[in-house]
Q: What sequence folds into this?
């Protein structure tokens, strides 16, 4: 007797692609084996029924730390150039404060040198789901504030997704620092091109100094 056809909505005819590193792929397979099931069944179950944990961050956010570190690199470049506009007195105290923040970041994110990056993710794992399941997974990823790929990779490698809750003020400060850092980067490129600093960077450095002073509130 022929096997009955699956209802259209239950067919696993939608494919989710997840870019992973070899170690991440191995971790996914290990979790599936530990669950006593196939990778496909494990993946579908976790992506729909997996736990999303809400945690409040007590650390300086990685993105904020990275912006401060990048600004510090530009300030060091300015200090290495002849000073035509008296901006060095402004740079040194800001750079000292940045050094303190970067040291804090190294303590918190010291493992980042061993962290898997997108450059390491040369493998693709596929999960077949139904259209209805894909809609549910998309909604869960959006609710967690993650891309589908990040949500799927974290859920299948770690067995759960962690959502860090950070004060909204941090995000506004991060955006302001990024914008000021971009302007400082432009000024630094211009100063390097002419072989000396100038008055153009002074206003940006004053702006950055005020933003850096607010970081201890995080």
A:
């Amino acid at each position: 007797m022929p096997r009955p056809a699956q209802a259209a909505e239950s067919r696993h005819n939608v494919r989710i692609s997840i870019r992973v590193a070899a170690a991440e792929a191995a971790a996914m397979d290990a979790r599936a084996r530990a669950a006593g099931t196939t990778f496909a069944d494990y993946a579908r179950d976790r992506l729909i029924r997996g736990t999303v944990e809400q945690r409040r961050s007590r650390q300086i956010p990685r993105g904020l730390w990275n912006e401060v570190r990048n600004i510090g690199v530009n300030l060091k470049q300015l200090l290495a150039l002849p000073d035509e506009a008296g901006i060095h007195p402004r740079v040194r105290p800001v750079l000292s404060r940045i050094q303190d923040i970067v040291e804090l970041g190294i303590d918190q994110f010291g493992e980042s040198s061993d962290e898997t990056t997108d450059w390491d993710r040369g493998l693709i794992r596929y999960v077949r789901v139904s259209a209805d399941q894909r809609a549910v997974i998309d909604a869960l990823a959006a609710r967690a504030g993650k891309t589908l790929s990040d949500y799927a990779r974290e859920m299948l490698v770690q067995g759960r997704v962690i959502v860090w809750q950070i004060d909204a003020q941090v995000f506004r400060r991060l955006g302001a620092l990024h914008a000021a850092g971009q302007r400082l980067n432009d000024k630094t490129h211009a100063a390097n091109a002419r072989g000396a600093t100038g008055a153009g960077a002074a206003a940006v450095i004053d702006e950055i100094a005020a933003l850096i002073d607010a970081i201890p509130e995080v």
Observations:
- Residues 17 and 126 are 5 Å apart (CA to CA).
- Helices lie at 22-34, 39-49, 62-79, 88-109, 131-143, 148-158, 168-194, 202-213.
- Strands lie at 14-20, 51-56, 123-129, 160-165.
